[in-house]
Specification:
Layout: H1 2-8, E1 48-51, E2 54-57, E3 66-74, E4 95-97, E5 105-111, E6 117-124, E7 132-137, H2 138-143, E8 152-159, E9 196-203, H3 206-218, E10 224-230, E11 235-244, H4 247-259, E12 266-268
Parallel strand pairs: 3-7, 4-6
Antiparallel strand pairs: 1-2, 1-12, 3-8, 4-7, 5-6, 5-8, 9-11, 9-12, 10-11
Length: 270
């Protein structure tokens, strides 16, 4: 399932199963990422997604974001693979993975043990390990001097292009209705209630989507449908359960799907 695999990002695998590159560089000479205004990635930015049964909500309001916790790194094992944003992971570039920041977002990372700091571009999802807040590229981890230990306590905060104070440009998700918590129950008086779907897969070939749809209906999962998304290169056939305007009904469906083994679903709003 293309959409689900892109969301998984790097964080399922801890750094101790990864490795260093074959070529060694002067890491301090690699420049930091330069913040710039750019549109959100077309992949990796659903309203929410689930990994290993735990749901994560993308927070599109990134002004004044600050967070402390453990940083880890990923390297050769993932070099050349696609990240959650669709970009190819380059272990020599100044990038990182985060569970809830929009893709892309730029953050300053400060090592609390030695006060070294770098700026990286968040273009991937992870790390999905308790206590860790960011997975750094190998180059960024080298510049912060955390490769040998594997992890370090850091502080991260969002940074922006000169003169910009918002990451989200016009035409991108509105911070007032992107998160699930903003959905209000539809009691008949609310004509603007947000509508949500639980998406279980996205396929380039319709027969694969139809197979999943039949599997879901045989398990009494309703309402379920196939939605076709077109872009300039191809079409994706998305299998979705819903719509739901009531948050409790949505969570009940998620629980039902999880019990049936569908643990990698995520929420979409269209």
């Amino acid at each position: 399932m293309l959409a689900l695999s892109l969301l998984a990002g790097c964080g399922t695998f801890p750094a101790d199963q990864d490795g260093a590159p074959e070529k060694i560089l002067n890491w301090d000479e690699i420049p930091d990422a330069v913040p710039r205004v750019e549109p959100l990635s077309e992949t990796g930015n659903p309203a929410s997604y689930a990994v290993d049964g735990k749901r994560y909500f993308i927070d599109f309001n990134v002004n004044d974001f600050r967070q402390r916790g453990a940083a880890s790194w990923y390297g050769a094992k993932f070099h050349g693979r696609k990240t959650s944003s669709g970009e190819v992971y380059d272990m020599y570039a100044m990038t990182a993975a985060h569970k809830t920041l929009p893709l892309p977002t730029y953050v300053k990372v400060r090592n609390l043990h030695n006060e070294k700091q770098v700026i990286v571009k968040i273009n991937d999802r992870g790390p999905f390990v308790d206590g860790r807040i960011i997975d750094l590229s190998y180059a960024a981890a080298q510049k912060l001097d955390i490769v040998n230990n594997g992890t370090a306590d850091v502080e991260i905060e969002t940074v922006f292009a000169d003169g910009a104070r918002k990451q989200i440009d016009k035409g991108q998700p509105d911070t007032d209705n992107s998160r699930l918590e903003t959905a209000r129950p539809d009691d008949g008086t609310n004509t603007t209630a947000a509508v949500y779907y639980v998406q279980l897969g996205a396929f380039s070939h319709r027969p694969h989507a139809e197979k999943l749809l039949l599997q879901l209906t045989s398990q009494a999962i309703t309402p379920v449908s196939i939605s076709r998304k077109n872009d300039t290169d191809n079409s994706l056939f998305r299998v979705r359960v819903g719509p739901f305007a009531d948050r409790q009904a949505l969570h009940n469906m998620e629980s039902q799907l999880s019990e049936l083994g569908y643990t990698s679903s995520y929420i979409v709003t269209e």
